[in-house]
Design goal:
alpha/beta, FAD/NAD(P)-binding domain, D-Amino Acid Oxidase, Chain A, domain 2, 11 helices, 18 strands, binds flavin-adenine dinucleotide
Length: about 400
């Protein structure tokens, strides 16, 4: 069975590895011309995201992620108002990417290959690429091309990501670059501060080189802030060069005005330890938060996985876990049935249910923080998890 995986990020790589393990002839086609190792920031590292590396890669979790034992909330003055026992693991996108990529045959991972279209005659799919690259025939095409998926736009033109009303400002700071007081405030925890229509959280992640040693790690923040759709958001999303971007602004792209506003707001509105961290971040970046609901994931010999399918807001820290779960379920379905359309039809309902559940739960959590203002520290509903709080 020949399989083309479109998109070589965490979802695409997990699918490619699992299908390779089944003996399937898999090639990954990634649009980016260079390896993606510099991308991304911290991730809440849930069991589904860990699963391939632990079960098939023999990786020790302590070598690629950091365990924390507390959920902590601070008040405006920086006093601890809630501290509950809760074990979590955090890693970074590039640490996990490097680990997965190292396990996949490099000759089958093709950079600079942007899918532009396909022909599907029912017997096979012929994937076509930009720049005159040769098209590829496959029995199965897995589209793991993310929230901006062009394949989804073609398969389901009516299904579009819907703006949530807010963005995530993000950044990472080497833990030794901040004051000992700041390090102590965020030690061994995910730490939150909730303010009107907004919240910020901080957790530790591996260093840029993947080191998990105390002193070599990074502190990662995510600050959810509301911007009105239209001019307010468009102004934010217009980068230094005047170009408007839909989904994210990478490090260095945020305009000087918005950088100044972020730092001033951090100092004015956040407890000092959070403000210190935000202001110590050399190049914060941001991601627009979208909801994406779709009615189908399987289309004969083509399927959508990960963010190309459902996108839930990040409040469950479950995006990469969902992409991995889609891939594990797909591999299970293909192991049971090598007829691709039949396997995809059997796979689809469970993954649609998973995506809808995650979308609804994270939408409700986001609404409580960013609109209703009734997010209660310690509420068990807010525990991270793919299949439910803490699950
Ligand atoms: C603020 C924020 C915080 C988050 N926090 C967490 C967290 O704590 N834990 C967690 O698990 N998840 C988290 N996520 C979600 C997570 O980042 C995504 O769910 C995950 O990256 C989705 O992986 P993916 O492989 O499906 O898509 P992506 O990572 O988006 O990858 C898609 C890939 O497809 C490629 N591509 C696109 N178009 C084409 C094309 N035409 N041809 C070829 N290649 C193409 C892209 O270059 C890219 O490499 C967070 C997201 C946000 C926005």
């Amino acid at each position: 069975m020949k399989t083309a995986v479109i998109g070589g990020s965490l979802g695409g790589l997990t699918a490619a590895l699992l299908l390779s393990d089944l003996g399937v002839d898999v090639h990954v086609y990634e649009r980016s011309p260079v390896e993606l190792a510099q991308r991304g920031a911290g991730i809440g590292f849930l069991p589904d995201s860990q699963r391939y590396l632990v079960e098939r890669g023999g990786v020790a979790l302590d070598d690629i992620s950091i365990g924390t034992a507390h959920i902590r909330y601070l008040d405006r003055r920086g006093n601890v108002i809630y501290d509950g026992a809760q074990k979590y693991r955090f890693s970074s996108w590039n640490t996990v990417y490097r680990q997965l990529l190292a396990r996949f045959d490099a000759r089958r991972y093709h950079l600079g290959c942007e899918l532009t279209g396909w022909r599907d005659d029912g017997q096979a799919v012929e994937a076509q690429f930009a720049g005159g690259k040769p098209s590829q025939r496959a029995d199965l095409m897995i589209c793991a091309d993310g929230v901006g998926s062009a394949s989804r736009a073609r398969l389901l033109p009516e299904a579009k990501p819907v703006y949530s009303g807010y963005v995530a400002w993000r950044g990472m700071v080497p833990e030794m670059a901040v004051d000992a007081k700041v390090r102590a405030a965020f030690d061994d925890a995910i730490t939150y501060y909730v303010l009107a229509n907004s919240h910020i959280l901080v957790y530790p992640i591996p260093g840029v080189d993947g080191s998990v040693k105390p002193g070599e790690r990074l502190l990662n923040f995510v600050w959810y802030r509301n911007y009105l759709a239209g001019g307010d958001l468009d102004d934010l999303m217009t980068d230094q060069s005047g170009q408007h971007r839909e989904i994210s602004l990478p490090p260095g792209a945020v305009s000087d005005r918005h950088m100044a506003e972020l730092r001033a707001s951090a100092i004015a509105r956040l407890p000092a330890v959070f403000a210190d961290l935000v202001c110590s971040t050399a190049q914060p970046f941001l991601q627009v938060i979208y909801d994406l609901d779709i009615p189908r994931m399987a289309f004969g010999r083509i399927c959508l996985v990960g963010d190309a399918a459902f996108v839930g807001r990040p409040h469950a820290a479950a995006g990469t876990a969902k992409a991995a779960a889609d891939s594990w379920a797909l591999a299970d379905a293909l192991a049971r049935n090598r007829d691709v359309p039949t396997a995809l039809a059997q796979w689809e309902p469970g993954q649609i249910a998973l995506g809808k559940q995650l979308l609804e739960r994270t939408r409700a959590i986001g609404r409580r923080s960013q609109v209703d203002g009734n997010w209660v520290p310690g509420d068990p509903y807010l525990i991270l998890g793919l299949r439910g709080p803490g699950n």
